[in-house]
């Protein structure tokens, strides 16, 4: 039982990070109907910017951890959002009225550009940071000496995820911007006729998605203690899978999908073989899509006439 | 990058051409990554080779002839290694000290075999290099499977009756190392409690770590590279495990300590003993230092490869690669690394690994006599 609880913690934290990245995929798909394959690399850029900001702050002699975290969070969200906006502006907007596959190919190209750019600019080796948030809590110790450990960084990851999800759900359902976004999702032409600035709304979607990816990048950096130029690829694929599993286009679905993938991987590793954890995750994805073609929380697409 | 490689090639070629001017001399070659990410090791090999040639010439050359050195750059790229090998074979050079990366040494060795070139690698430890029954290959360094043996001996001595787990990353190097260690452990009557693989490049090992915790593992042997080993260690400490981590020579990299931080203290790994500390190397090390060169890493290994070849040539009375190789495998050779003897495959008979330990400050040191 204790072992199960420990693995549950492991799975939830991993799933939270997947979920944070998956939200970016799902938001863009919901509005523009394209899969932004460069999103995983935006996440990687976010991690690097967090790392660089962190090192700059340390060199200024700053030692207060909460203050450092706050500054790093804001700076990396801002700069990564700028990256997200730029990518949309130069790679997707010119192709918006082109044939359906064009922006997707452009996205794959953008993904290569970002990966190689950070490889050249930052080098191919991993970049570690010393542990920033240390310590943890022993939740329970069983008779045979098995200890359930919950580290502080795990708490930070989960709380950040929950808070951000709440903020963005509120943003989409209650604000002017959210209403514009939902309008564009339903019918861009009609939204434009009713005075919604479609280009700006789409840009904002990319900006928000990138800012969330930056948060995920920071959490990743804090949790695993390192970043490298290639980390966006695997994380991006997993998060994309999470978005599809949860029902692409649905915000809570992305979070649910992320948690599902994280838990499947962890429990498969815990009770079966570690070697086949990715196989297990993707097999379950296939099974789910056979029975629920639109994912767990997705709505069937209505043909627009 | 491409232009860099081209410059490197042109540079290598110009050296090869300039050395060809001494027609009456015997030209020998050193091949390794002179450019690219591994160029630090290539420089070590070049330093070792140049010093060895100078010393041999000062002592009267080999068989009455002076030696000339051709320096070749493979940038640790298998394709480039192969083309260099063909060039060296075409130039009728009888001996090459190289290459550095196993993935270069192995494809190059076939071209050398066809071209009648004797190859001694100072650094490639993959067993496959000598396992393909090629007549022309030998090394002056150890093999990955010998590391497994040393690791198993250490575990048998210090962790008898404790719970052992073995992990590997499914790569040629990692799985090879883990399997050799497992074999040696099982032979010594120790059965591991857990044997698992992970994917190289994974970042999240929390699920495996919880399994180690459930099985009360005292020592985990990781056949893999330093990045994953560092993450496994960090996540073990985060989950409150005191399990000792042990691994192979891939952990002899400062980056391991920067990933783990002070938590890396106590991590064990097997690696060749530092040749600079050997009594046989004292004089040469001083000679290098007088020139302002620190003979670190594979410098002395390259020097030793040259020594073995020159002594065998003297004894055989010819530079013909086949005859020299026969002589080499039959004799015992004095080198800066100490005496070297060969088995029929071209591996050294001396097992050249010791156990090292990381400390909290991010340095590692040999465990010495009390360890292994």
Structure explained in plain terms:
The complex is a heterodimer of chains A (305) and B (372). Chain A has 305 residues and is mainly α. Helices cover 72% and strands 5% of the residues of chain A. In chain B, the strands form 3 sheets. Chain B has a 7-stranded mixed β-sheet with strand order 7-6-8-9-10-13-14. In chain B, strands 2-1-3-4-5 form a 5-stranded parallel β-sheet, sandwiched between helices. In chain B, strands 11-12 form a two-stranded antiparallel sheet. The radius of gyration of chain B is 22 Å and the shape is elongated. In chain B, a hairpin with a 2-residue loop joins strand 11 and strand 12.
Poorly predicted parts of chain B: 16-23
The number of E-state strands of chain A comes to 4
Task: Name the helicity range of chain B.
Answer: 40-55%
Structural class of chain B: alpha/beta
Structural class determined from secondary elements of chain A: mainly alpha
Low-confidence stretches of chain A: none
- Strands of chain B, count: 14
User: Which band does the percent of strand residues of chain A land in?
Assistant: under 5%
Straight-line N-to-C gap of chain B: 44 Å
Helix content range of the residues of chain A, please? over 70%
Tell me what portion of residues of chain B adopts beta-strand conformation. Answer: 15-25%
Radius of gyration of chain B: 22 Å
Summed over residues and divided by their number, the pLDDT of chain B gives a mean of 85
Indicate how many domains the architecture of chain A comprises.
Answer: 1
The biggest chain-chain interface is:
A-B, 38 and 29 residues
């Amino acid at each position: 039982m204790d072992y199960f609880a420990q693995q549950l913690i492991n799975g939830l934290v991993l799933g939270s990070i997947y979920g944070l990245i998956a939200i970016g995929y799902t938001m863009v798909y919901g509005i523009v109907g394209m899969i932004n394959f460069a999103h995983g690399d935006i996440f990687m850029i976010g991690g690097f910017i967090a790392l660089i900001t962190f090192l700059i702050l340390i060199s200024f002699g700053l030692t207060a951890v909460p203050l450092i975290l706050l500054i790093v969070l804001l700076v990396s969200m801002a700069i990564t959002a700028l990256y997200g906006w730029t990518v949309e502006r130069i790679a997707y907007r010119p192709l918006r009225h082109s044939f359906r596959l064009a922006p997707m190919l452009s996205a794959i190209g953008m993904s290569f550009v970002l990966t190689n750019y950070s490889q050249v600019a930052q080098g191919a080796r991993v970049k570690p940071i010393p542990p920033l948030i240390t310590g943890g809590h022993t939740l329970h110790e069983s008779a045979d000496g098995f200890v359930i450990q919950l580290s502080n960084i795990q708490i930070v990851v989960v709380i950040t995820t929950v808070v951000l999800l709440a903020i963005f759900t509120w943003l989409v359902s209650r604000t002017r911007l959210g209403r514009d976004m939902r309008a564009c999702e339903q019918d861009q032409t009609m939204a434009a006729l009713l005075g919604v600035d479609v280009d700006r709304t789409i840009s904002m979607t990319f900006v928000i998605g990138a800012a969330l990816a930056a948060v995920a990048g920071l959490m990743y950096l804090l949790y695993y203690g390192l970043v490298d130029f290639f980390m966006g690829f695997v994380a991006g694929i997993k998060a994309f899978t999470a978005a599809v599993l949860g029902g692409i286009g649905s915000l809570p679905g992305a979070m649910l999908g992320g948690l599902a993938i994280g838990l499947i991987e962890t429990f498969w590793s815990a009770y079966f073989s570690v070697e086949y954890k990715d196989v297990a995750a993707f097999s379950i994805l296939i099974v789910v899509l056979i029975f629920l073609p639109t994912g767990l929380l997705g709505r069937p697409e209505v043909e627009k006439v | 990058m491409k232009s860099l490689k081209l410059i490197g090639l042109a540079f290598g070629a110009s050296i090869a051409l300039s050395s060809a001017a001494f027609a009456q001399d015997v030209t020998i070659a050193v091949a390794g990554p002179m450019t690219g990410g591994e160029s630090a090791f290539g420089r070590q090999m070049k330093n070792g080779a140049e010093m060895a040639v100078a010393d041999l010439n000062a002592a009267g050359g080999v068989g009455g002839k002076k030696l000339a050195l051709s320096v070749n750059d493979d940038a640790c790229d298998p394709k480039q290694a192969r083309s260099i090998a063909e060039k060296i074979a075409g130039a009728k050079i009888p001996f090459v000290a190289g290459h550095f990366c196993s993935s270069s040494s192995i494809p190059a060795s076939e071209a050398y075999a066809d071209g009648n070139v004797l190859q001694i690698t100072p650094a490639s430890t993959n067993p496959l290099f000598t396992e393909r029954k090629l007549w022309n290959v030998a090394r002056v360094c150890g093999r990955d499977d010998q590391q497994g043996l040393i690791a198993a001996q250490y575990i048998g001595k210090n962790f008898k009756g404790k719970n052992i787990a073995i992990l590997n990353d499914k790569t040629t190097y990692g799985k090879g190392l883990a399997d050799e260690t497992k074999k040696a452990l099982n032979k010594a009557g120790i059965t591991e409690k857990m044997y698992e693989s992970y994917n190289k490049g994974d970042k999240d090992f929390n699920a495996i770590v919880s399994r180690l915790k459930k099985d009360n593992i005292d020592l985990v042997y990781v056949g893999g590279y330093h990045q994953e080993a560092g993450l496994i260690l960090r996540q073990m400490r985060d989950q409150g495990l005191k399990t000792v981590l042990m691994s192979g020579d891939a952990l002899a990299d400062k980056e391991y300590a920067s990933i783990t931080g002070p938590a890396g203290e106590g991590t064990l790994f097997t690696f060749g003993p530092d040749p600079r500390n050997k009594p046989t190397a004292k004089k040469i090390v001083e000679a290098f230092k007088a020139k302002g060169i620190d003979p670190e890493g594979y410098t002395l290994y390259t020097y030793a490869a040259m020594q073995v070849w020159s002594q065998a040539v003297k004894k055989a009375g010819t530079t013909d690669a086949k005859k020299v190789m026969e002589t080499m495998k039959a004799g015992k050779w004095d080198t800066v690394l100490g005496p070297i003897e060969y088995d029929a495959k071209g591996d050294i008979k001396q097992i050249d690994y010791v156990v090292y330990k990381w400390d909290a400050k991010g340095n590692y040191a040999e465990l010495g006599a009390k360890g292994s």
